[in-house]
C-alpha cells in the first residue's frame, strides 16, 4: 500500500470536497434524484477525464513541473500567458475567500476560549500559520490532510447514522421541477464541487517515483470520493425532506437547523465539517499556488511565500469587496482552466512526433471531442 498515493488522492478529494457539499440538495432536490444523479455523474465523468488530460500533459512534458512550465512547453508563450493569468485570477481570489472564512471561524473559536483578537488579527494568524504549513512541502500537507479528511468523513458518517433511519421512499421519488433549462443552470454549481485540477502538477511532482498507471488511479480515486459523499448526502437529505421543503431554504444554516431540531449535536457536527472542508480546500489551493510560484520564481522561497500568502492576505484585509467580485466569474475561469486548457495541451502534444508518451488518457479523438462538448456545455450553463 503506497501511503503517498493514498494521501495524494485525499488531497484531491479534500480540495474538491468543500463546504458547498451541504448545499447540493438545495440545488438538485427539486429535479428528482434520477436527473440530479445523472447530471452529477455526467459532470464527474467530464471533470475526471479533463483531469486525466492534464495528468497526461504533466507527465509527458516532464513530471515535476508547475502549470507555468507545462503551459509553455505545450501551448507556447501565448498559451503560457493566458494560462498563468487565469490561474492567478482564480487561485488568489479563492485564497482570499478562504482567508476571510477561516479568519472569521478562528476569531469565533478564540473568543470561546477567552482570546479576544480582532478579525484582522485572526486572518493574519491563520494565513501565517497555514502558510508555514504549505511552505513546509507537500509531504507535510499530505499528512495533515489525511487526519483532517478522516475527521471529516467521521462527521459525515455520524450525521448519516441519524438521518438514514428517517429516509422516506416517497420523498426519494418526488419531482417538483421538470424544467430542463433550470436543471442545466445548476451545472455550474455542481462543476465547482469537482474543482480539484489545480493540484495535479504538485502531486505529480510529489509522487515522482510513481508509475503513470498509479498516478491515473490516484486521480480517479481522488475524484470518486467526493462523488460518493455528494450522492450519499443528497439521498440522505432528500429522503428526510420533501423537495418543496428543501427549495424553500435560503441558506445551508436553515437546512442544518431543521435537522438540529431533532438531533441537537448535528449543528455542531456539520458546522465543524464546514470548517474542516474549508481548511482542506485551502491547503489544496494554497499548495497549487505555491508550486506555481516556485516554478515561476525559480524556487525563491521568500518571493514565493510573499506572493502566495501575503498578497492574498492584503487583498482580504484591504480590498475584499473589489477582489472577491472576481469570484462571480470563477466558474467560467475554472471551465477554461480545468477543461479547455488541458484539452489544448494534449491536442498540441499529441501532434508532436517525438513527444514522450509515457501516459495517454484513454478514449482517443472521441474523448477529446467529448471533452470539448463538455466544456461548451458548462459555458452555456453559466450564461443561459
TrEMBL record:
In the UniProt record, the signal sequence range is none
Q: Which GO terms describe its biological process?
A: amino acid transmembrane transport
Arranged from A to Z, the UniProt key words for this protein are: Amino-acid transport, Cell inner membrane, Cell membrane, Membrane, Transmembrane, Transmembrane helix, Transport
Which residue ranges does UniProt annotate as crossing the membrane?
39-61, 81-100, 120-140, 147-168, 188-206, 218-238, 264-290, 302-320, 326-347, 359-380
InterPro entries from the UniProt entry: Amino_acid_transport_2, Trp_tyr_transpt
Mostly located where? membrane
Membrane topology designation: Multi-pass membrane protein
Q: Which domain of life is it from?
A: Bacteria
Which GO terms fall under molecular function for this chain's record?
aromatic amino acid transmembrane transporter activity
Subcellular localization, per the record? Answer: Cell inner membrane
One annotated Gene Ontology cellular component of this protein: plasma membrane
Protein name as catalogued? Tyrosine transporter
Source organism per UniProt: Aliivibrio sifiae
